[in-house]
Amino acid sequence: MGRATAGNARRSRRGSVAASSPAGGSRRGREKKTGEPPSGPGVPGPFDLGAQSGRWAAFQERHRLSCEEAARLLLDAYEYRGLVKHTGGCHCGAVRFEVWASADLHVFNCNCSICTKKQNRHFIVPASRFKLLKGADNLTTYTFNTHHAQHTFCKTCGVQSFYTPRSNPDGYGIAPHCLDDGTVQTIVTEDINGKEWEKAMKEHKTIRDMSKP
Length: 213
Prior knowledge:
Elements: E1 10-13, H1 53-63, H2 67-79, E2 84-89, E3 96-101, E4 104-110, H3 113-118, E5 121-126, E6 130-134, E7 139-142, E8 151-154, E9 162-163, E10 171-174, E11 186-192, H4 197-203
Parallel strand pairs: 4-11
Antiparallel strand pairs: 1-11, 2-3, 3-6, 4-5, 5-10, 7-8, 9-10
């Protein structure tokens, strides 16, 4: 994986941008009385919402959210501001995931032996922004050489929709071509010289940071 040059960047356009506000999640039955502030493990007891109590209760009532769901929506909106929620998966549908990332994706095109064989183009996200929705028991993993990279793929259809890259073991590499339509605005592709991996990692200035929250 080598240092980016202006000549290596290629821009393409795909789909339309989705709203950057996080979805409210499932609307299960209310777990707590409407307007009750969040509580539970890690929360040091109820807190005073003050003048916002009425807004909090009205928001829960309007969207039919439990207190936990409303709190998650608020936290997602703050922590993932400027990002969109992409969804995707394998070909047969056994593996599905969601990932928070920009609508404008920076994709790596690596020329190492395995990436060349399977055309592994991917963008990198922190592990905290990725969630496997289903299919954990339908995944199998291939490793080789250093065994640091975890090449996960669906047992049924063989598609690798995400994996753990050697360059970023604390994150995930997501295949942009396995995302559902409608949330990607642009894709910039950077060629990486994976044939000289150690040299490429030493020279690249930002790839290691892409999996940091």
